[in-house]
Design brief:
It contains one helix and 21 strands. The chain has about 210 residues and is mostly beta strands. A hairpin with a 2-residue loop joins β9 and β10. The longest helix is centred in the last third of the chain and has 7 residues. The radius of gyration is 28 Å and the shape is elongated.
């Protein structure tokens, strides 16, 4: 006679991972479970069962055959944030249930307004120049870069240091003069600050003559 396959309780073989996603984009929280008979999968967010297309065909959340939870688009408004939160998947058959690790789904944001715009700076040739910028609030925290006269700033120049929101030029040259813009970037996109003008003044020539 053939060996009878034993039934066994569910076990999770693929757990969901934390996600940061942009509003309106699709996303997937993975879950795979083994068991005999094949377990049913349900998702819970913050302890409450998640409604999917199995409950309501119009739902923007689909339960995939694997057990993964697929979001057609992440919904996130001022008032309602139905998708953000902490999720687990639960696999069940008649012998028991298994619960996955927690996975958080967070929605990336990037506001429009800079916490601090750079200001105009006026220096003499050879002096240091500093511009400061604080990007808009965002999640993930935006990175900062700079543009000069519309082009990305060459930070390979050893006179130039970009640290935090500060742009420092240790020894200004006439060619550093121009219009500077601070750019805050994360996965949502980028925002540009107001324009700040760097003016580099020539030292009067009689000063050079006096130095001889």
């Amino acid at each position: 006679g053939s060996l009878r396959q034993e039934d066994f309780p569910p076990r999770i073989v693929e757990h969901p991972s934390d996600l940061i996603v942009s509003k309106g984009e699709p996303a997937t929280l993975n879950c795979k479970a083994e068991g005999r008979p094949t377990p049913t999968i349900e998702w819970y967010k913050g302890g409450e069962r998640v409604e999917t297309d199995k409950d309501d065909p119009r739902s923007h959340r689909m339960l995939l055959p694997s057990g993964s939870l697929f979001f057609l688009r992440i919904v996130h408004g001022r008032k309602s944030r139905p998708d953000e939160g902490v999720y687990v998947c639960v696999a069940r058959n008649y012998l028991g249930e298994a619960v996955s690790h927690d996975a958080s789904l967070e929605v990336a944001i990037l506001r429009d307004d800079f916490r601090q715009n750079p200001s105009d700076v006026m220096v003499a040739v050879g002096e240091p120049a500093v511009m400061e910028c604080q990007p808009p609030r965002g999640h993930p925290e935006p990175t900062i870069s700079w543009k000069k006269d519309g082009s990305p700033l060459d930070d390979k120049d050893e006179r130039i240091t970009i640290r935090g929101g500060k742009l420092m030029i240790t020894y200004t040259r006439k060619s550093d003069a121009g219009k500077y813009v601070c750019v805050g970037t994360n996965m949502v996109g980028e925002r540009e600050s107001e324009v700040a003008e760097l003016t580099v003044l020539e030292r009067p020539s009689f000063v050079k003559a006096a130095a001889h």
